[in-house]
Amino acid sequence: MTEWNARRDQATDAVRRAVAGSEHSWADLAGALDRPLLWTIAALLGSHALPAELAVRAGELLGLDDETVAALQVQPYRTRGDELRADPTIYRFYELLGVYGPALKEAIHEEFGDGIMSAINCNIEIDRRSDPDGDRVRIVIDGKFLKYQW
Known about the structure:
By secondary structure, this protein is an alpha+beta fold. It has helices at residues 3-20, 26-33, 37-44, 52-62, 66-71, 88-112, and strands at 115-129, 136-147.
């Protein structure tokens, strides 16, 4: 593990501890930073670099030290090893894509042509939907279609 990865992991741990020990929910933080909920969570957990003013604001809200605030501003590496598959919630997304990924790909290509849905230019929303058989998790991914260029 590089020194940067170790510092980023330490910053992520510091953010998790700060959120757990604060009166702020992730939704509160997203509102205070004026950013979408899932983008905010992903950024504070290390998947996006925060612009300086947002990192400073997050640091103020969560009582983070200067080193952690600085780590929130550095461009991350966005790949992780298979350790994420060990988490039951995250594994279900792997499972979902394993089952439905080929069908989603075919449906996207049939509807839009040869290309991909952007993971860089997308919006993600999550909410709870009541259901008599148990509450449902509703996730909407609104991604820009990028046509392959020849």
